[in-house]
Amino acid sequence: MTGVTAVQSAAPIIGRLVVVGLGLIGGSFAKGLKESGLCREVVGVDLDPQSRQLAVELGVVDRCEDHLATACVGADVIQLAVPILAMEKLLGVLAGLDLGNAVLTDVGSAKGNVVRAAREVFGTMPARFVPGHPIAGSEQSGVEASNAQLFRRHKVILTPLPETDPAALSLVDRLWSVLGADVEHMDVERHDEVLAATSHLPHLLAFGLVDSLAKRNENLEIFRYAAGGFRDFTRIAGSDPVMWHDIFLANRDAVLRTLDTFRSDLDALRDAVDAGNGHQLLGVFTRARVAREHFGKILARRAYVEKVAAEDLSFLAQPGGSVRGQIRVPGDKSISHRSIMLGSLAEGVTEVEGFLEGEDALATLQAFRDMGVVIEGPHHGRLTIHGVGLNGLKPAPGPIYLGNSGTSMRLLSGLLAAQRFDSVLTGDASLSKRPMARVAEPLRQMGAVIETAAEGRPPLTIRGGKALTGISYVMPMASAQVKSCLLLAGMYAEGTTTVTEPAPTRDHTERMLRGFGYPVAGNGATASVVAGGTLTATRIEVPADISSAAFFLVAASIAEGSDLLLEHVGVNPTRTGVIDILRLMGADISVQNLREVGGEPVADLRVRHAGLKGIVIPEALVPLAIDEFPVLFIAAACAEGRTVLRGAQELRVKESDRIQAMADGLTVLGIKVEPTADGLIIEGGQIGGGEVDGQGDHRIAMAFSIASLRAAAPIRIRDCANVATSFPNFLALCSQVGIRVAQEGQS
Length: 747
Ligand code: S3P
Fold this sequence. Notes:
six-stranded parallel beta sheet, 4 domains, binds shikimate-3-phosphate, about 750 residues, four-stranded mixed beta sheet, about 20% strand
């Protein structure tokens, strides 16, 4: 039963498959392919008569041959699944046979030595030999453990050479794919390096540690005191010693390289312990912990991505409902980014509370860890940042990947333009399409050297060691990211850096710089900094993000019977355009308990249902509500009459083209809209049901979720995974207050 469900049944594409070596790997390969029906016959060869007999009895192969030569005459594919050190001898025997047109492949866990051996015995690497390595194993061994599903969802690495016949490669690829494996192609050298680091070194350490402890404690008494840590670390020392001995001999060079690097890192750790250098230890441990989590996520995501790839990550929102209760939405995204940046550059230790643990802010956090800053947490929104001072950053070990986050890339570009080292900034598909010339151009005027891809798009390559000079820059667009980028660069530039904005934009950078004791001059439209100051560590309490609260402000406004309290929301006047616009439309929002926390105004917002009417949105409010338009368009769709937005061309270059994305979705839902170059005209009406595209843009996905409250039928929203960039617990909070939206397939 098991194998039958694992593999697809198909018409035979090859005549005879010969599997040499009927252990766990060879037996599982044979069994899976036998069950697939892809081979007319599967023939086993093994030195051990008992294994041959069992293989036939257990249905692993159709039959066995005692002699390799007999089995191989007329074979179409020959799989070599013998221990790695036996491979050379086996290849020598095969070289003496007439293999006709047979494709050869193998499963050895090191590839350099197999290729070397093949070259030696055949005189040249046979074009129809495709070296391979399935990364699958189990504590079990022997033909009796053969499992047709063993390779399902496991990686199989094929290491073709320039001379490898593409038809042979694609046949071997096909065989593994039929077994459910995830096949990748790689260079021989890279394969051996990767495996040495991720598999061989850990086994060496596990065997070595257990032996070292055991040797010095002959009665093995100390193991009585061993707890989970020892058990977890040394589990793999229970693996087959002979097989591992073979692997280390076979992959000697790559293992030595990774071992030597590790030895010097271990020496550095030893020195840190010796010197009582807790800071360094904490740095290693926090980085390692994050790397481990990341690695855990990759593994978890593999299962998840497989599921999602087939289904996409969609939300399904049920129509109707009212919104009631009291919630606190997660921390402000803009302030969270800035807390990491300034905390890292400060002298001393900065404590942050309320940090947004969304993917965007975490991308900034990881970037600074990569540049050598020790950051503890996040733990329930709390962080401890061990500042390195304005000149204490170190080069990241490779390109800095910033995911979906435009704020990270634009602000970091200013900071990195002033460092002594080069940096490369990259991002996901959406970020890779966003305009970066708006920061690169003025930074170049300051003396920075920045290369971009075509049309000023990422990746950005920033050359270090350039002396910057302050400029007075009049921004062509209202952008807090551009302003902040230049102010950060200005801390390192000779003279004064002044930025003038065409309309007020969020001023978190200016406020936070002052909070860290760095003077920022300016009035309304301009802000200036002078180099030479220092940032002094401080405490930051991040208020809840008004951009996330906006979804609930609209939700409670449009749904009859709603009454909701949003706690501790940041109400910086450069961010409250959404409240002003909703109030102009007739919303019932009261700002309660207004207070100032760490230089930012904070309040509780109470919102109750109200009949909304369409308005012409005052253009002066556009930059103050720039991120809230997707959900404001939903409010407009529910309002009586027409709403007109103009002067918002910036919406076309956000995480998606938000004018088009919302116009498309609203049209699907039966709302009359007219997109313009710089805005949208919306006629209020009855929202219908249907399927809309979230376009991988968090705010589009969340806006359409809110629309369901007034929809006549369910709304299905596709491509929603990026909600996690700014609002990881969006669905949980929706369900808490009565909005019935869930990840599809879950309720
Ligand atoms: C942000 C500024 C705005 C905003 C973005 C965050 C910031 O971008 O849309 O979500 O944190 O400075 P622009 O500067 O491009 O307007």
